[in-house]
Write a structure and sequence with these properties.
481 residues, Jelly Rolls, Immunoglobulin-like, 29 strands
Length: 481
């Protein structure tokens, strides 16, 4: 051992001190190596670190001595090793060592040798090799025989972690949505891999930028021009995969306004009015602007019919309507339509009456009138029958078999509406009484009795014949037994 120590001292004393830096992007940079005995390879035995200063071997400085690797006997013998957590591809190496010979072993998942590299002693620069894939471990091996020491200064390999799911790095669902006349947004489906790093965006093969999101906004486009856009996924090793591609033609602005609305109709009430018009047939119609006395009512397009709110009683207004498309083009306004809101002093409009008969009476019904306070029911000859605040009236004690005629007038404090239509009904005794209309018990009893009596003879005849046969058969059976 004294001899070995003396040789080491003499070598260090005569070695020139030249600081050489390793590249800092290696796979071993800053890693801790393990000390191994590989004399019985493929059996590999862990060794103590002995005199190796592990951090200095991967510190990126090729002039710092990392100690010694002793070769007790046999060849090869001791080595420094690092096992990668996932497979890597190695395409370059850099070593700095002295005083012995060495080799770099690149081992696979089962410790099989994928490659053996024998670098020169003087080689301290990054040296490229044919890429070796599937590497799970690298060994810095002392290949000398006998009691020879290897003096390592730097050990580094270069390459990239292998991606286990490269088939997932495909761009699907690429589409473009215009956001203005000169801009649009690209979007695509996300690559479902934890090994994705970013996406690269290209326009006509020129790189626009890198994003981690699944969309990208593009501006300053020329209307009518066609562009090619590509999106390429990039993995954690900065490998760029095949891009998704699409052509996008910037829409030419639509400057043609839609048709002018026609058939504008106003239905006024006291404080509101309903505005409608014939539909505008443009396929890109967004809606309508309604103008009241020259002023646009809403900031955004509306759909028809549209209700004007907050109007004054008995006031004249003018309405105009313009159509607007999805490009913001607005048509000329329609011709002016004048209307006057209703007043509290407006007489009700006429109602429309329907009628249905029942035994001894009739039910009249009509739709409500907004300004009516009550409704008056008359015989067709003008005889007043009743008044009600409801929208139906029950007329009773009518003669069955006769035609009865009625009309209704809506009324308020100002006056009466015109007469409604005249309805005719013909009650019949054969009709069941309408018990839902609030008849008294006597009315129901009388009506039911009258209705039943009209069927009595037929009912008695129908029952008597089979009943007589039944009785005679029973009597006959008594005598036969």
């Amino acid at each position: 051992m004294k001899k070995i120590s003396l040789l080491t001292f003499l070598f260090l004393a005569i070695m020139p001190v030249t600081q050489i830096f390793a590249y800092g992007d290696g796979l071993l940079y800053g890693k801790t190596l393990a000390y191994k005995d590989v004399r019985n390879y493929p059996t590999i035995v862990n060794q103590s670190t002995q005199s190796v200063d592990m951090p200095k071997i991967t510190d990126g400085n090729a002039s710092t001595l990392g100690g010694t690797i002793y070769a007790p006997s046999g060849s090869p013998n001791n080595a420094l090793a690092y096992v990668f957590p996932v497979p890597v591809t190695i395409d370059a190496y850099q070593v700095a060592y002295s005083n012995s010979s060495m080799a770099i072993w690149l081992l696979g998942a089962n410790n099989e040798k994928l490659a053996v590299i024998s670098p020169p002693v003087s080689g301290s620069v990054k040296t490229s090799i044919t890429p070796v894939s599937g590497v799970r471990a690298v060994y810095f091996v002392n290949t000398t025989t006998g009691s020879t020491i290897l003096m390592p200064y730097e050990f580094e390999v270069y390459g990239a972690q292998e991606i286990p799911d490269p088939e997932k790095f495909v761009i699907n669902g690429l589409k473009a949505v215009p956001t203005s006349g000169t801009s649009m947004t690209l979007s695509w489906d996300a690559v479902q891999s934890v090994n994705l790093k970013r996406y690269q965006i290209y326009r006509d093969n020129q790189l626009l930028g890198n994003v981690t999101a699944t969309s990208y906004s593009v501006s300053s486009l020329v209307p009518g021009q066609t562009y090619n856009f590509k999106v390429a996924p990039v993995d954690v090793n900065d490998k760029v995969y095949t891009s998704g591609s699409m052509d996008y033609t910037v829409p030419v602005p639509d400057t043609t306004p839609p048709q002018v609305p026609v058939g504008v109709k106003i239905t006024p009430d006291r404080y509101t009015a309903s505005v409608t018009a014939d539909p505008v047939p443009d396929s890109d119609l967004a809606g309508y602007h309604v103008f009241l006395d020259g002023n646009r009512v809403t900031s955004q397009p509306v759909q028809l019919p549209f209700t004007l709110q907050g109007l004054k009683l008995d006031t004249e207004y003018e309405v105009e309507v313009a159509s607007i498309d999805t490009s913001g083009n607005i048509s000329a306004r329609s011709s002016k339509s004048k209307f006057r809101t209703l007043t509290l002093e407006t007489e009700p409009v006429a109602v429309s009456v329907t009628a249905s008969p029942f035994n001894g009476g009739a039910l009249l019904s009509w739709s409500p009138v907004a300004t009516a306070r009550e409704y008056k029911v008359y015989n067709s000859d003008g005889t007043f029958i009743m008044k009600t605040t409801q929208t139906s009236a029950k007329i009773t004690r009518l003669k069955n078999g006769q035609v009865h005629a009625f009309y209704v007038i809506a009324s308020n404090a100002i006056g009466d509406s015109p007469r409604s239509n005249v309805v005719e009904v013909k009650p019949e005794s054969s009709l069941a009484p309408d018990v839902s209309l609030g008849y008294k018990l006597k009315d129901v009893a009388d009506g039911t009795s009258s209705w039943f009596s009209s069927f009595w003879l037929l009912l008695a005849f129908t029952i008597s014949i089979p009943l007589s046969f039944y009785v005679s058969n029973r009597v006959k059976g008594l005598f036969e037994s």
